[in-house]
Amino acid sequence: MARKPAPKDTTAFTPPPSPQRETRRAQVDLSFDNQSLLGALFGQFDANLVQVENRLGVFIAARGNELHIEGPENSVARARDVLKAMYDRLAIGQDLDQGAIEALIAMSDEPTLDGIVDADPGKGKGGPPIMIRTRRKTIVPRSAMQATYMRSLVRDDIIFALGPAGTGKTYLAVAQAVAQLVSGSVQRLILSRPAVEAGEKLGFLPGDMKEKVDPYLRPLYDALYDCMPPEQVERRLASGEIEIAPIAFMRGRTLADAFVILDEAQNTTREQMKMFLTRFGQNSRMVICGDPRQVDIPGGDGMSGLADAVGKLEGVEGFGTIRFTAADVVRHPIVGRIVEAYEGPSS
Q1: 236-261, pLDDT tens digit by residue?
Q2: For residues 30 and 70, what is the distance between their CA atoms, to the nearest angstrom?
Q3: How many helices (H) and strands (E) does the chain have?
């Protein structure tokens, strides 16, 4: 039998990559003076180093108080800056956990080997460090957008904080409010959010009105107790310095000398939002937090009070608008992936 002719090689010739397109590789050595911090820096079984390796695609070798980093140039630069920031964080007494490391990685952007990303976003930029000091902890930004948000919290009269769960919208607002209450900058802290649309839903819950609405306000309580000792929270609640109430309780009031926070604002109607905003008084600050993609107003026309207010007031003097995305989620990394999945094109 005659053999079939061998097939012709039709593979197109691909020229080797040009030197300009090749990924430049680099290596860097770091040393740390305080060896007592190395255990917390490296993590149990070097878990913190492995986390940086996996996220940035580098190789890290520990030799005593020194680290050797190898990999693509930009990744090596980022890993170096993240490790420096981790060490600096431990040196000033702050905790270092998986979430904090993820935040430092996210904030490192893509520096070059000629630049250093400061552990403190305010350092070296002509301004004071960005932080919120409360009785129980000192809070620093864990994403670039959080740093912008924290600046807005001390600058703008009314702030719209928009974005998915886990980005720190409400928590940072409560922390800033607690700091101002303790320092005497404001006399009252007022926390509010929509409960439910109709009274009959609350009627099925046991107890008086406070006991009925407290479950809807629990996230605000949680943030408060995280920023203040429990006995102080209870004392200030009893004295009226801290007030937690549904938005319906705001009608007819003028909120002067107060830090006012409205959470879950996407579930307000236009009328409720207008009513709330017009409560603004002298020496006050308002923060309105919500996720525009999670509107749940039964029987509405699809336009929440939050979206309506942002559309009307964004850019007006005295107003600040902060937009968080899934990239700013500072909970467990999987939360960010969940948000991205639900916010994708097919959602």
Answers
A1: 999 999 998 888 888 888 889 999 99
A2: 12
A3: 12, 11
What is the fold, at CATH topology level, of the domain defined by 23-107?
Ribosomal Protein S8; Chain: A, domain 1 (3.30.1370)
User: Who contacts 242 (Cβ-Cβ below 8 Å, separation ≥6)?
Assistant: 181, 188, 189, 190, 191, 224, 233, 236
Q: Is the CB of residue 269 less than 8 Å from the CB of residue 304?
A: yes
Distances (CA, A) of 129 to 125, 132, 279, 345: 9, 10, 32, 38
Q: Tell me the whole-structure pTM to 2 decimals.
A: 0.67
| Domain residue limits, the chain | 23-107, 132-342
Q: Report helix angle 98-107 to 47-56, nearest 10.
A: 30
Class of domain 132-342: alpha beta
Six-digit token string for 295: 């509107």
From CA 179, how far away is CA 152, in angstroms rounded? 15
pLDDT score for 116: 41
Pairing of strands 25-31, 66-72: antiparallel
CA distance linking residue 334 with residue 341, whole number of Å: 10
pLDDT at 202 over 60: no
- Joined together, the tokens standing for residue 28 give 């860097």
Centre a 10 Å sphere on the Cβ of residue 278 and count the other Cβ atoms it contains.
Answer: 9
Amino acid letter, residue 123: K
**Interval 203-246: pLDDT, tens:** 555 565 566 666 777 778 888 888 888 899 999 999 999 998 88
Q: Cα(268)–Cα(132) distance, rounded to whole angstroms?
A: 29
Answer whether 223's CB lies under 8 Å from 170's CB. Answer: yes
* Phi, psi (rounded to 5 degrees) for 15: -65, 150
